[in-house]
What we know:
The structure holds two protein chains of two kinds. Chain A is α+β, with helices and mostly antiparallel strands. Helix content of chain A is 37%, strand content 18%. Chain A has a six-stranded mixed beta sheet with strand order 13-12-11-14-15-16, sandwiched between helices. In chain A, strand 21 (655-664) and strand 22 form a beta hairpin. In chain A, helix 19 (470-484) packs parallel to helix 20. Mean pLDDT of chain A is 69; it is low at 91-96, 99-105, 133-237, 241-270, 535-550, 605-612 and 753-759. Chain B is mostly helical. Chain B has one domain (5-164): Up-down Bundle (Butyryl-CoA Dehydrogenase, subunit A, domain 3), CATH 1.20.140.160. In chain B, 67% of the residues lie in helices and 4% in strands. Chain B is built from seven helices and two strands, in the order H-H-H-E-E-H-H-H-H. In chain B, strand 1 (80-82) and strand 2 form a beta hairpin. The longest helix of chain B is centred in the first third of the chain and has 23 residues, at 5-27. The N and C termini of chain B lie far apart (54 Å).
Amino acid sequence: xxxxxxxxxxxxxxxxxxxxxxxxxxxxxxxxxxxxxxxxxxxxxxxxxxxxxxxxxxxxxxxxxxxxxxxxxxxxxxxxxxxxxxxxxxxxxxxxxxxxxxxxxxxxxxxxxxxxxxxxxxxxxxxxxxxxxxxxxxxxxxxxxxxxxxxxxxxxxxxxxxxxxxxxxxxxxxxxxxxxxxxxxxxxxxxxxxxxxxxxxxxxxxxxxxxxxxxxxxxxxxxxxxxxxxxxxxxxxxxxxxxxxxxxxxxxxxxxxxxxxxxxxxxxxxxxxxxxxxxxxxxxxxxxxxxxxxxxxxxxxxxxxxxxxxxxxxxxxxxxxxxxxxxxxxxxxxxxxxxxxxxxxxxxxxxxxxxxxxxxxxxxxxxxxxxxxxxxxxxxxxxxxxxxxxxxxxxxxxxxxxxxxxxxxxxxxxxxxxxxxxxxxxxxxxxxxxxxxxxxxxxxxxxxxxxxxxxxxxxxxxxxxxxxxxxxxxxxxxxxxxxxxxxxxxxxxxxxxxxxxxxxxxxxxxxxxxxxxxxxxxxxxxxxxxxxxxxxxxxxxxxxxxxxxxxxxxxxxxxxxxxxxxxxxxxxxxxxxxxxxxxxxxxxxxxxxxxxxxxxxxxxxxxxxxxxxxxxxxxxxxxxxxxxxxxxxxxxxxxxxxxxxxxxxxxxxxxxxxxxxxxxxxxxxxxxxxxxxxxxxxxxxxxxxxxxxxxxxxxxxxxxxxxxxxxxxxxxxxxxxxxxxxxxxxxxxxxxxxxxxxxxxxxxxxxxxxxxxxx
Amino acid sequence: xxxxxxxxxxxxxxxxxxxxxxxxxxxxxxxxxxxxxxxxxxxxxxxxxxxxxxxxxxxxxxxxxxxxxxxxxxxxxxxxxxxxxxxxxxxxxxxxxxxxxxxxxxxxxxxxxxxxxxxxxxxxxxxxxxxxxxxxxxxxxxxxxxxxxxxxxxxxxxxxxxxxx
Lengths: 759, 165
């Protein structure tokens, strides 16, 4: 065994030595025939061969090398090393893509492209240095990178049912039920930089996403902000196509039986949010992305900084979500809070206006700002429909009070939105409210606008529980609506608010089909609002089942804003749009304003890298506030002085800020522009002397900034107790409002968390 | 033809141990050798589009290994010697790849060789490259390889015989 092994080794060495040498044909055979390998035998074998120079010495070395080779190769190789070596080095898709493109080009073209790229880099890089973009990248550098790996066929996958959450157990796996061969889909992954990682691998896919997150909050909390910027910068990356967001229900929350199995619903990419940070000297983008809060801006640094476009935010989903989070978990994370949505959720007690958009500006000294800072409020209020436009109506509201309504806080935000919509509709309408559970019973009959506070109290004591029978509930609602006012000449409507789809044929729809036919003949409109708006089931059409269509208006209302607007539209039978494409620009006078800071509206990365936020539509009842902290220049003619001295009134007529609001009137399509100016002498010297709306917005924003652990909060060392005390000193009309009551309760719930968090 | 994953694994199995031995004999430190081999295969993977199967796989890998080793030596700090005047004067010294941490007789003998001789004999004897492949890797004429291997072998023999005596 040893001899044959040694012969084989020797032969390999022999072949190696001769591999690059042209030798006579028979020389190899002669050499292999050597039985005893020594110099004499070798010389004999090569005696008549005209061998190349050095060949003989190389052949001699074969024998001489054996001991050397044995010694040199006598090294054990660590087994772990071999295991490590077999791991393919990881590469990001962008690297792969880049490499693939690089090697597609011929060598000559490659050289040309490389030269061109070098030239471009030589130009682009200095520009990056000149701009602040590199600064923000540097600011981001310490932060871990979130990888959002998707595949180009993402759009094709949208809406397929191949992915689902396995129900039962810990709900911990996503399985690809029908298409495990689709490796593109399986390659989709999101990695998060903390312990709550969410990594998709091939079938089955590990799923460890933090629960209790809607898609939007998931993105805001884990992906958005500065970290997504890296993904944005990746070649060919498109947020609209390449960002995958999966949505799933709250673990442990009560669900309706017919919601099974739980489909993993691909969420849409997040909406842009926040102010667009300008690429201008003087705007500290590095600060913005490091602290995720808008920096102080000195308009004198650059004339362009004196004017900015502020996104108008009318959605209040974050407020509802924060409520639910507090209720279930008793705590909020800083990234859970969105200041501008807190502000949009409030109503500020402004007098109703019939204008398309009413703009209000007010400013006052504030205890929340350092160094004699002022709080500036720009309020936008959607115009109210004139009461003369409404015909008297009676609406029977069938409210689902089953246990599933507690899921996602549907009951709490649903009731809040319903009552607010009824309040905004004003007097002149009547309502009957039926609760629908196992049984159906009325809790208010022919209630008017004045009865809403009492109705609110009753509803606040109700805890949804048990099942519900919607067929019987609908039947009872119809009968109630028909009998209630049969002798009065009022338009009658029936509104069902639930978290389920309308009953199907198998659910007993045919039982009430004749009843619905009668409703149609009598002109009774039926609205069906589904708070669980994720379902894609088609609306029930009576025509498909051989009955007359019952004019059932089905609407998905997955949030309080959409429900409020849908209720308003259904009851009024008019569009709720008050103004389309509303945009707000604010200008500061650099002579008056030394510095300002926009509160909230903190830019996400895509807010920073994409064009400005889209103009929004204001609906009836919408109110929102944009808040600034401003510091007036004490050397300016009007700055810093509380009262206008006699004879200097003209100096005090100088503008501090101007708000320009543009919108399109939906009634005739005309462009409307409103300018609202704030003069120095209009600034209230103290917070207590300010308009109630400003004070309310101030405390709401302060509370949100405390929760967000804003960079600007710790220096003031204020807590919820102080904010609550200031809130309690607000005027009585505001104190008695539902929003104020909710806000005070919110502070009470949030306060223990803060006292634990702050040592 | 780009290197596939299967081909990559085959390369690791076929040449991994040899590369490790070359690296070890070259630098004399097990951990550094492992790093070198890993870097070599990482580089091989990232430049896999240049790979052509069955055309001197080992020579290709060893050339990568040698470049990685040279990079490491270049990164090492230069030595500084104190002159008679007491001033510290930095001078360029070819750093010994490994002078400590290894007591093997053969390694000591290798360390005593000039770098070019050590490198050449390792490529031919341990790396099992043909002389022509070694010449291409080292970018020197074939005859130089032959003479270096011969001189290196002679010196090693002398050193080891003397050590045993």
